Amino acid sequence: MIKGDNAFVPTAPLRIAVRSGLDAVALLVTEQGRVRGDGDIVFHGAPVHPSGAVRLLGDENGTAWLEAALAGVEEEIVRVLVVGSTERGAMRDVHGLSVEAFAPDGASVARYEVAEAGGETAMVLAELYRRAGGWKFRAVGQGYVNGLVGLVTDHGVDVAEAAPVPVPAPAPVPAPAPAPVPAPVPVPVPAQAPVPFQVPAPVQAPHPAQTPVSFQAPPSAPAPAPFRAPVPAQGSFRAPAPPPAPAPVPVPAPVAGAAPVPQWVFGAGFEPYVQSGRDNDVITVNGLPPGPVIVELAVRGDGYTGLWPLTRFNKEGDSLVNSCEDNFRGRVLTLVPGNGRLRLQLKAEGRWQLRVLPLAAATLLTEQELEGGGPDVLLHTGGTADLHLHYRGDDNLIVNLYELADHDDPTELPTDDNAVNEIGKRRETVPLPEGPVIVQLEMADGPWRARLKDLQPHSGPSDTGGLAKVTDIRRGQGRSWWGRS
Prior knowledge:
The protein is mainly β. It folds into three domains: 6-161 and 196-216, Lipoxygenase-1, CATH 2.60.60.30; 273-359, Jelly Rolls, CATH 2.60.120; 362-474, Jelly Rolls (Sandwich), CATH 2.60.120. Helices cover 2% and strands 38% of the residues. It has a six-stranded antiparallel beta sheet. It has a five-stranded antiparallel beta sheet with strand order 5-6-2-8-9, with no helix packed on it. A five-stranded mixed beta sheet has the order 23-25-30-27-28, with no helix packed on it. The protein starts with 5 loop residues before the first strand and ends in an 11-residue tail after the last helix.
């Protein structure tokens, strides 16, 4: 992502990594952009929000970890701010400054590498916010030269330089005795209640308490129990074991009537590959699991954009992108050969960023309207439904369906079913079979909207969360999740 980008993420417990060597803080704010009190600040002195939905997990190898269980966030809270701060130098001095969100299985669903840092000492790196019944991740990158104090003040936290210390009143004097130089008399200071925020003081991190804790900027204190970051594994990508919770907090009960969290059982997971450049180039990615992957491309510039996979003979394969749109952005499907080496030829005019993602990164289709522009890879996991598309481009609209329920080869895609092949602005309604189904917008040079209609329950057994039971695909595969990055 670049600054200002946003994307949907799964409404599930996300692990959020704040790199490199920064202290992590989370602020839960209302529609007015302000916290309701001390409890809405999650930091080293109060590592768990009262709702249990947001918590600070600790740090490992210079990465601070937060957890945000989005389904448990109170309705009054509309945004969760992910904040990083430093006590040594400025943000411009932090090498590899980034924030990344991981789904429960360890698959990356959003990543923002901050490239615009300056003299700030605190920054809102990203925010999770409600949209269309779900949650989105936005790359923010808003820095504060006046540090964490200025940042939290902007969001409704009452900041004081230090808590006043009561000074005892002097004993009463019966009568003033004449003296050449009267001795100074201490002025009594009334005792005051603790303030919500205090300027940092080097103290040991307190144990989590049940009563509200005044906010203090993080001091140099021993790190909590280490949290193992997600790492790619051969043929599998699984979530790390959760670390011990800082304090026992009740887990919020599921909302009555809420749909079960779907599970994705096709395609290996892996750490997303990211490369940036300018103009024409050849991109090589080694060590990928063989099979279908998503390639996301964003170009900032005018003119033609083309993308092709290269064969083992270094010849162009079938075209993946063929567009004359300015500032092209889209997602396409391609296959990684059996040797795990993907080579792509790119023709572009201007700066670009390319990412290779697992199929788990496909955008989930729901009954909430989804907006996009350009080619994309979508995922349907429910029962039978109708896909309603509103396309406002002038060129081709090509939509292909890939049914995965009876497909048992994770290194190949099943034969596609061409559902739409039309030109110009139009509205289309396409019947979808039971999921999982990949819905590929192969060509869509223009804005579009998509949503499910007449969605039926899945006929699959309940032990798969209402999805088709694709047991053959489970063998040798790690579970993955989806999310828009």
